[in-house]
Specification:
2 domains, Spore Coat Polysaccharide Biosynthesis Protein SpsA, Chain A, globular, alpha/beta, three-stranded mixed sheet
């Protein structure tokens, strides 16, 4: 680890799993950030059997001129890797006030880090999120580009209730001190949704969240993630995650089941309205599939798309 602990104000954390070539793009975009404060980079590879990402990150960052820490998390699971990244970042850089996260399929656009940290300072925000702009690696139809799964919060920089994803976020150190461990609930290790549950807890705890329109991340979407099958399955998974989060944060099972029933009706209406608007079945299917996903989860059917086969 190359470090200057006392001067580091922000730490960017990257959990990675079996994407060393993509991680290279992410790291390059980070070391090129120009800021008026010192920042560090923490990489946690979740492939203990073959940590190619960790090997690459150590070699690259050793000559990048930034403080860094590269680790391998032996327990498989996205939430394990994220919790390890944030925990090690706070321990290694005790004066760092801001902890950020970017995924290994993303790159930070110029000015990203300065903008998101600047918003946190200016607004005394506890949490800040920013836009994620998708770049498709293969040509796609407007049925894909108009799908709600690729949508993002829009509008100017402002206070908002909550962000939902961790792929472009800043979290102030005091947030971690104010929440119980584990930070990201490991029940979401293989289903996804640990970030949404975390930010739901943050909202309920009263932490102040801002949206920074100028802090832009680009996400690269591969061919296998734009098929109709993948998107429809992900819509179902979104519904199942929503159901599980509702059950965690609502003691009344009856109330949550009633919400499922209402969701089916509302989802059907929204899907019909979307079809009339877009004339495209794929994006129109999303609200109904989310509602169906809630129902399936209540029956015990929970997807685990991020569980590696070996």
């Amino acid at each position: 680890m190359q470090q200057s602990k006392g001067s580091v104000e922000a730490v960017v954390c990257i959990p990675t799993f079996r994407r060393p070539a993509w991680l290279a793009r992410t790291l390059t975009s980070l070391v090129d950030q120009v800021t008026d404060f010192a920042f560090a980079i923490v990489v946690v590879d979740n492939d203990a059997a073959n940590p190619a990402g960790a090997v690459y990150a150590r070699e690259f960052l050793a000559t990048a001129g930034r403080p860094f820490l590269v680790l391998t998390e032996e327990r498989q699971g996205n939430c394990y890797a994220i919790n390890r990244a944030f925990g090690e970042a706070m321990a290694a850089f005790p004066d760092a006030e801001f902890l950020l996260m970017i995924d290994d399929d993303e790159m930070a656009l110029p000015g990203w880090l300065g903008e998101i940290v600047g918003t946190a300072k200016r607004e005394s925000a506890d949490i800040v999120g920013g836009p994620v702009v998708r770049e498709f690696e293969v040509p796609v139809s407007d049925a894909v580009t108009r799908h709600q799964l690729f949508d993002s919060i829009k509008g100017p920089t402002r206070a908002i209730d909550q962000i939902h994803g961790s792929g472009n976020c800043l979290i102030r150190r005091r947030v971690f001190a104010g929440l119980a461990s584990p930070l990201f609930d490991v029940r979401f290790n293989f289903s996804g949704g640990g970030d949404m549950e975390f930010f739901t807890r943050c909202r309920k705890a009263g932490f102040r969240t801002f949206w920074c329109a100028e802090a832009v991340i680009r996400e690269f979407v591969p061919q296998e993630r734009v098929s109709a099958r993948f998107l429809m399955t992900r819509s179902l998974r979104t519904g199942s995650i929503n159901y599980v989060i509702d059950r965690i944060h609502n003691a009344s099972a009856t109330r949550v089941l009633a919400k499922n029933a209402l969701s089916l009706g509302a989802g059907s209406l929204r899907s019909m309205a979307l079809f009339l608007k877009t004339r495209r079945l794929l994006p129109a299917s999303h609200p109904l599939l989310v509602s169906l996903g809630r129902t399936l989860a209540s029956l015990g059917f929970l997807p685990a798309p991020y569980r590696a086969s070996n």
